[in-house]
Design goal:
Phosphate-specific transport system accessory protein PhoU, PhoU_dom, mainly alpha, 6 helices, transport, PhoU, single chain, 214 residues, cytoplasm, Methane Monooxygenase Hydroxylase, Chain G, domain 1
């Protein structure tokens, strides 16, 4: 009975790692759709979000059943609590990738990204992928030291977010209001995506140590 119980806990971990893989693919493809004005890729990000949602629903169902049948305590209780929190954050990351893809779809066949901010958006997409990849590794390994490193990686995303605002607010900005609104929203989506990845890593720290990172 206990072996089956811990297999269920291990299954939660595996599903969370799967979610990190899915949302990493989503943000990668959303960035490509945005920069290349690729409608087909944008549509694929939007339609495949159902897989992220379905995986989270499986996690939720497993957690509720475990709570009802096993009444976990101590570390096991932390596991189910953090699994629910991490799943929620990862599901939201998938939604944010969809938001990016929807901007690409809205502006197709034109691009939402003016030339002068393309390098910044590309970097933001790359950092987003790095963060979620590290978050997945932390979930799998329960490596506290690696989890704590995500905070500094997120600092790089914040700097790029501020750079976008400097571009938009510059007197030399030639593109008008609508592109500025697009860039403001897109920058926020990437910044929030990174924040959720950091929260996932923080939950790994809590799971292992019983304390939140300061």
């Amino acid at each position: 009975m206990r072996d089956a119980y811990h297999e269920e806990l291990d299954s939660l971990t595996n599903k969370l790692v799967l979610m990190t893989t899915l949302v990493r693919s989503a943000i990668s493809r959303a960035t490509t759709a945005l920069l290349d004005s690729d409608l087909q890729i944008a549509e694929s990000v939007i339609s495949r979000d159902a897989e992220v949602n379905a995986t989270f629903e499986e996690i939720e169902t497993s957690i509720f059943e475990l709570m009802a049948r096993q009444q976990p305590v101590a570390v096991d209780l932390r596991m189910v609590i953090t699994a629910l929190r991490m799943g929620t954050d990862l599901e939201r990351m998938g939604d944010l990738a969809v938001h990016v893809a929807k901007v690409a779809r809205l502006r197709h066949p034109d691009t939402a990204i003016p030339p002068e901010v393309r390098p910044t958006i590309l970097q933001m997409g790359q950092i987003a992928e790095t963060l979620v990849t590290k978050a997945g590794s932390c979930i799998a390994s329960q490596d506290v030291e690696s989890a704590l490193e995500l905070e500094s990686d997120d600092d790089a995303m914040d700097k790029l977010h501020r750079r976008l605002f400097r571009n938009i607010l510059s007197k030399e900005w030639p593109h008008g209001v609508e592109p500025a609104i697009d860039i403001t929203l897109i920058g926020r989506y990437y910044e929030r995506y990174a924040d959720h990845a950091v929260r996932v890593a923080g939950d790994v720290v809590y799971l292992v140590t019983g304390a939140r990172p300061s």
